[in-house]
Amino acid sequence: MRIVLVGPPGAGKGTQAQFIASHLSIPKISTGDIFRANVSGGTELGRQAKEYMDRGDLVPDEVTIAMVRDRLAEDDARDGFLLDGFPRNVPQAETLKKILAEWDTRLDIVLELVVDEDEVVRRLSGRRTCDKCGRIWHVDFDDKQDDICDDCGGRLFQRDDDKEEVVMHRLEVYRHDTAPLVQFYADENILVGIDATGPVEEVTKRALTALRPLERD
């Protein structure tokens, strides 16, 4: 099965991608993993990407797409994959469609994790990270009464990218760049929306229920 997972920051894409890919025995492919593999492996594409990343710039579409194409051509992705974080915009989606068409295949489904923006802000701005062990706690979900890590005694702090104003900016970028993918894939008749609120296990159950009609015996 060939799946794309979309949704705003804080929707739980990374967590759900891991569970779904494991259930279907297909590789979870994220742009972050691809970037790290190419950079650490010293590939030509990795060297190109690193130049942009070191300057704090976005890696251009053509470099990202080339990396994704190489990854999808690997043996473990031959019978299916789950893409998390790609495509990020309509041009990337159009290119992905062309790549798959060259291989005489196409996406089976696009799962959109649907969550209210207020909930996204609550999820992300409430996160606190331990400065010693790196564990992430949540001021609401973990019922924390202090700023001390229960695991190691480290001090909890709020990362810059979890601050409310930064989260709001990330949502604005998502609406502008990535949200149009929803309409693109709706027009392709392969979009299915999944309610991403509630316990992780419940969200996973909803996603697997949506995928069940597409599973091959």
Automatic annotation (TrEMBL):
InterPro entries: Adenyl_kin_sub (IPR006259), Adenylat/UMP-CMP_kin (IPR000850), Adenylat_kinase_CS (IPR033690), Adenylate_kinase_lid-dom (IPR007862), P-loop_NTPase (IPR027417). Pathway: Purine metabolism; AMP biosynthesis via salvage pathway; AMP from ADP: step 1/1. It comes from the Bacteria. The keyword tRNA processing does not apply. SUPFAM superfamilies: P-loop containing nucleoside triphosphate hydrolases (SSF52540). Its EC number is 2.7.4.3. Its main location: cytoplasm. Keywords: ATP-binding, Cytoplasm, Kinase, Metal-binding, Nucleotide biosynthesis, Nucleotide-binding, Transferase, Zinc. One of its GO terms (molecular function) is zinc ion binding. Residues 127-161 form the Adenylate kinase active site lid domain. AMP binds at T31, R36, D57, L58, V59, G85, F86, P87, R88, Q92, R159, R170. It catalyses: AMP + ATP = 2 ADP. ATP binds at G10, A11, G12, K13, G14, T15, R127, G198. GO terms for biological process: AMP salvage. Monomer. Catalyzes the reversible transfer of the terminal phosphate group between ATP and AMP. Plays an important role in cellular energy homeostasis and in adenine nucleotide metabolism. Consists of three domains, a large central CORE domain and two small peripheral domains, NMPbind and LID, which undergo movements during catalysis. The LID domain closes over the site of phosphoryl transfer upon ATP binding. Assembling and dissambling the active center during each catalytic cycle provides an effective means to prevent ATP hydrolysis. Some bacteria have evolved a zinc-coordinating structure that stabilizes the LID domain. This is Adenylate kinase. The lineage of its organism: Bacteria, Bacillati, Actinomycetota, Actinomycetes, Streptosporangiales. The gene is adk.
